[in-house]
Amino acid sequence: MFKVFVYSLLLTFISLIVSNQIISHEIKNQTRKLNNINAVIQHEENKENLLKTDWVVRTSPARLKVLSDKHRSTLKLSPAKGKNIKFIKLEEKR
To answer: According to DSSP H, which parts of the chain are helical?
Structure first.
């Protein structure tokens, strides 16, 4: 009877060790996947910040003034007049 108890205890410990290794391996895989996802997110955020900065630089009033002065004759640009601006009345949906 004692041998059966010892063998069952030994099998229990072996199964616990194996299950512990399986779980540990799965946790490492999931952690690796999460780190990859976080790296992709960080890369996308960096690209977004770069694009925002580029937009600010490209649409700066000083730069636009220089470009309009440079290409005024080609594009035939003229300052906007108040009478050229039309407002659209938005109707409320009911």
So the answer is: 2-58, 61-70, 72-75
What six digits make up the tokens of 75? 């594009």
CA distance 6 to 8: 5
Q: What is the pLDDT of residues 11-52, one digit of tens each?
A: 999 999 999 999 999 999 999 999 999 999 999 999 999 999
Alpha carbon distance 3, 11 (integer Å): 12
Surface-to-core class of residue 25, CB atoms within 10 Å of its CB (0-12 exposed, 13-18 middle, 19+ buried) = exposed
Rounded distance, CA 31 to CA 25, Å?
10
